[in-house]
Here is the input.
Amino acid sequence: MKNYTRVIERILEQIHTNERFVLTSHVNPDGDGLGSELALYYFLKDRKKEVKVINASPVPVMYRFMDPDAAIFKTYDARNREYIIQSDVIFVLDISEMHRLGAVEESIAQSSAVRICIDHHSANNFPGDILFTDEQAVATGELVLQLIKQSGFQITLPIAESLYIALLTDTGCFRFSNTNARALLLGAELLASGVSHMNVCSKIYESNSWEKTRLFARTVATLKKEVNGKIAIMHITQDMMKETGTVYEDIEGFAEFARNIKDVLISILFVEEPDDKIKVSFRSGNSVIVDRLAAEFGGGGHKNASAAVIKNLTLSQAIESVIKAAKRYVENT
Here is the structure.
């Protein structure tokens, strides 16, 4: 990784000279976005700052243990719009494009606050005043850890656990291609701070509801293969969610399932959303870079985990269009 000492000094200066902060992440936040937010929240609160964490989407069910009393993570509404506009500093975490802020985007655009983006996605185009971005970082949580350490602040257990969640989930429990020597050293450092690996894993991966499990079974029943099994696809309809009593946040983690099938190079999950939108999640192994595929449909993300939202197509039309494009990425492998 590059040396970001000067960038971090600029961020710490903003923290030192301001009082009112907003932390936000992308729509449908994942473990890295939420863990990074929570760690930075604890850091700022310990410095006696006024802080609110405001996201466009609710916290997914599997991560609600991070804030069991719903006292920290807030879902955007008219009540916190003015707080965003009148804030001094806005931290945007784990996001590379302004539009991925969802409903929060308009309020941030209207605010005169200093915008600080901390992110590890490739091709970051966020219009921030200070950009602390590195696509070589294991997770956004790694950059937040670097920021806190350079401040000289002691890493507390709540901060360490939050950052461990960021690291654990973005590496797929240390299975994905971003699991390198530095990732394992970072994990060891956070465990040495008192984090329980077993406890965190249990809360994230071993606490599924019956409703989510039924939806998962229905989703797996849609599994199909293309190009002799090199591409695996699944889908979720609005009716499936209604019939199982689930909400959108219950889908977190489903996209990875088909990638674990032998010989599958790309797994794709299609999810019907309201207003004629289809969320498409792409997963791949090291040999196929799916952020390029996602970009063809206006999306992006990581080289092995990306997503896009397709508008004005039916589910069947979206599947046909995406499969046609995906075949180009595997036909010569």
Observations:
- The mean pLDDT is 94.
- The first helix runs from residue 5 to 17.
- The CA atoms of residues 66 and 162 lie 8 Å apart.
